[in-house]
Amino acid sequence: MRHGVFYDRPLQKQREFQSQIRERDMKKFTFSPKSVLIEVAKLLVMLFIVANVVSYLKKPEVVDQTLPNLNVTLPDGTTRNLESYAGKPLLLYFWGSWCPICKMSSPVISDLSQKYQVVAVAVNSGSDKDLKSYMQAHDLHFPAVNDADGAIAQKFGVDTFPTTFIYNSKGSLIFTDVGYTSKPSLLLKIWLGDIF
Question: CA 121: distance to chain centroid?
Fold first, then answer.
């Protein structure tokens, strides 16, 4: 059945328009290395922003902004006061062997402990023997205080893990990170702690 010119022209224009839309959409979805890198960069920026917002919202309210007068027992059996770490920047890292995010961040802290002062507080992670075998199995080399009952974490207001407090060389709290933190981010904060 043949229609008049007035009927065919709008149909033809509609088909041309739909064809142009399809071509435009196909161009939109072509994958070049540059476009993939741009999309990955956008995703990383978004993840960075979200992680920092979550860290800010979840960070504990610390009343005392200086290293507390608190004795901790290290794995070798020695007792040390946290105030004695003043003089160099200190990472005070609250974690748990049961925490999935801690499993990703603990190796970063372990690497940093080879060069910087680190005290790790293992919260609700079992007995000293359990903690020691966990650390050996996961190749962790930082000094860890066993906070089996969570009392130290409670003193610092920590209820989200991992939480990292970074103190400057004067013993003042300068940064608090909650959740996973990258090595470059921690190095920058330690460096700033050494300057200020």
Answer: 17
Sorting pLDDT into bands at 50, 70 and 90, what band is 105? Answer: very high
Residue 156 has pLDDT above 70, yes or no: yes
**DSSP three-state, residue 174:** strand
Contact 196, 174 (CB under 8 A): yes
**Taking the mean position of all CA atoms in its chain, how far away is CA 182?**
6
d(CA 62, CA 138): 30
Strands 79-81 and 71-73: antiparallel
- Among residues 68, 89, 83, which one has the least CA distance to residue 193? 89
Query: Residue 119's closest CA among 88, 159, 160?
Result: 88
Q: How far apart are the C-alpha atoms of 29 and 36, rounded to whole Å?
A: 10
Percent of the chain beyond pLDDT 90? 48
Length of the chain measured in residues: 196
Q: Are the C-beta atoms of residues 145 and 152 closer than 8 Å to each other?
A: yes
Q: From CA 125, how far away is CA 113, in angstroms rounded?
A: 20
17 or 159, which is more confident: 159
Rounded Cα–Cα distance for residues 98 and 123 (Å): 9
* Gyration radius (Cα) of the chain, Å: 27
DSSP conformation letters of 68-93: ---EEE-TTS-EEEGGGGTTS-EEEE
